[in-house]
Design goal:
single chain, Methane Monooxygenase Hydroxylase, Chain G, domain 1, about 80% helix
Length: about 375
């Protein structure tokens, strides 16, 4: 029984990977069967393509399919045209033809890495033994047919078999980012209040950079699905921009906390900073949960009260003249902290609007 429970837990934890495994396997087998049915001379290219275009989401599969189709057609046409005018029994002329075909295609591939299949296809049309036997035109046509078959199979399987929508990946990546941002905010504010764990902060910053890169990738896949009219989901761009703004707020807080503030100031602000830390963390973690569950955003009253308390504490310091003894560096960082926390208040309001859009969107 324990083994079964552990197996179920493992399957739930790795559900996305298992679904992708099933889609890739089915796409490969189906592409092989159709290539055999149509008697394509090099049907394994169909199998390769069906597996290659199968990505973690439908949007990514669409992009991979389009890139591979464009690259294949372009490479096959270029290779076929050059090969048509090149004698097949002269190694020197064949080398010259290879240069003529590769120079423009590799230049395009350097500018657009997604089309790196184009020069490879041209080389196959020019140099493989099968191409030499059947001729350049037939070889180019065969290559286009084989790649097209694999692309169509991969795309249909991605759409119909356990489809993974990119918007779900956007929500998951955003929720993870919010958890990391809450942790980093907690640690930076702890530094301001007199604590310090720079090693953990450095690791969090590295995780956040990787998470932001991942979020941009899946947001691009979601845009692809929207452009293909495969979904009526929310526009991911405003959500991603808001995550970036909150991340930038934390970058500013990190700059303020790069050096400790005077003990006399920290002692007076420690309680207010603790309130801000607790309230903002609670909002960020609640926002992650609301996004994941497609619910309305969490209340922001605690954040408002905590930020108002911090502003009032700064005003008291100013009225009492405690800020006059600070040098320009400490004074500037103190008021920069107040500014960035006020900016964070506005970004949290914006984030609440994005969560509402997500909650009211029509899931695919």
């Amino acid at each position: 029984m324990k083994f079964w429970d552990d197996l179920c837990h493992w399957a739930r934890a790795n559900g996305a990977a298992l679904r992708l495994c099933v889609r890739m396997t089915v796409a490969g087998i189906l592409a092989y069967a159709l290539a055999e049915f149509f008697a394509l001379p090099q049907g394994y290219w169909s199998v390769f393509t069906a597996i290659i275009v199968m990505q973690a989401s439908v949007g990514a599969s669409i992009k991979a399919t389009l890139d591979r189709m464009v690259g294949t057609v372009g490479g096959a046409i270029a290779g076929g045209v050059v090969a048509y005018f090149t004698p097949r029994d002269n190694a020197i002329l064949l080398a010259v033809a290879l240069v003529v075909a590769l120079v423009p295609l590799t230049f395009v591939a350097a500018l657009r890495p997604n089309y790196r299949i184009a020069p490879l296809t041209a080389v196959i049309v020019l140099l493989t033994p099968g191409a030499l036997q059947v001729g350049p035109v037939v070889s180019a046509v065969n290559r286009i047919l084989e790649i097209s078959l694999g692309s169509v199979v991969g795309m249909l399987v991605a759409l119909l078999l356990l489809p993974a929508r990119a918007h779900s990946l956007v929500i998951g990546a955003t929720a993870r980012m919010l958890g990391l941002l809450a942790d980093l905010l907690r640690d930076w504010l702890a530094v301001l209040a007199g604590g310090s764990d720079r090693a953990r902060i450095a690791q969090l910053q590295e995780d956040i950079r990787a998470g932001m890169a991942r979020l941009e990738i899946v947001a691009g896949e979601a845009r692809q699905e929207r452009r293909a009219y495969l979904t009526h989901e929310f526009d991911p761009d405003p959500l991603v921009r808001t995550v970036f703004r909150v991340r930038n707020d934390l970058v500013m807080i990190g700059r303020v906390a790069a050096e400790p503030l005077p003990d006399s100031i920290v002692t007076r602000l420690r309680e207010a900073i603790a309130l801000v830390s607790e309230a903002t963390q609670r909002f960020l973690r609640g926002a992650a949960e609301a996004l994941t569950q497609r619910k309305n955003p969490p209340a922001r009253e605690d954040v408002e009260r905590a930020l108002d308390t911090f502003t009032q504490a700064i005003d008291v310091l100013r009225r009492e003249g405690a800020t006059r003894a600070l040098d320009a560096n400490h004074l500037g960082r103190l008021f920069a902290l107040g500014f960035v926390l006020d900016q964070m208040r506005r970004d949290f309001d914006d984030f609440a609007d994005r969560i509402t859009e997500c909650a009211h969107a029509e899931p695919s």
